[in-house]
Amino acid sequence: MSGTAIKRTRNLALCLLLVLPLYASAGGRFEPARAGNGRLELVRGVPVVHLTGTPEEMGEQHGKLLREQGRVLLDRYVGRFFNASNAGRAARATTLAISRRMKIPPVYKREMAALAEAAGVSYDDVLLANTMFDAKKMLQCTTAAAYGKSSSNGRLLFGRNLDFPSLGVAHLYSVVFVYHPEGGEPFVSVGFPGLVGVLSGMNADGVAA
User: Fold this and answer.
1) pLDDT tens readout for residues 1-44
2) Which of 82, 78, 79 minimizes the C-alpha distance to 94?
């Protein structure tokens, strides 16, 4: 392994060490499992999901490894915003119309489609879960950064407060994703079953978002 590869691997490991203490053992049921080149492991009680390959392969691994948890969140979390009432159905239709007009990179659409198929849910449900807060501007999270004299050690500190209502459900299903996309930059993301890309994360070169 080259020196650059070792450094990037260490950066990913460092990100995991920084993230894991912040996420206590999830309340949802997670068990170690494998799906193709993907796997789910428990580290200090926290579910860590490794996804590898093409968008379709990563989506399929995601859908199979987190099928049960993803379906719970779609039903008990996303479903709370778009229920079976007339108002809920109207809100769902309006939000989906906005979501479908978003300029989402094709690789993410491919990943979401494979995820939906593997999990046995509709693509619209997965699209809605990934875009609802942007489509409706429901919530705004808080990001803080400190450096120089404002930092206890003089180094850059960067953090994000996830200002989402958990509705008694979401906080039980936090997951750390470790992505190894084919031909792309490895990265770590803290998110939830059914979400693709980065909610909060850092790539192998130490760039955080």
Assistant:
1) 555 554 554 555 455 555 554 444 455 689 999 999 999 999 98
2) 82
Strand-pair partners of 38: 35
106 sits in which H/E element: helix 106-119
Q: How far apart are CA 161 and CA 146, in angstroms?
A: 14
Residue type, 38: G
Indicate if the alpha-carbon torsion angle 32, 58, 189, 200 is positive or negative: negative
pLDDT band, very low/low/confident/very high, at 75 (cuts 50, 70, 90): very high
pLDDT value of position 181: 97
Query: Phi and psi of 42, rounded to 5°?
Result: -105, 120
Output the six-digit token pair for 117.
């198929």
pLDDT of residue 161: 85
Q: Report the predicted TM-score, pTM, of the whole model to 2 decimal places.
A: 0.85
pLDDT exceeds 90 at position 141:
no
What tokens were used for 51?
Answer: 């996804």
36/205 Cα distance (integer angstroms)? 26
Q: Extract the tokens encoding 52.
A: 């590898």
Cα 59 to the center of its chain, rounded Å: 12
Neighbours of 9 (CB within 10 A): 13
10 Å CB burial of residue 193 (0-12, 13-18, 19+) is: buried
Residue 87, amino acid? A
Q: Which of 66, 61, 75, 86 is nearest to 169 (CA)?
A: 75
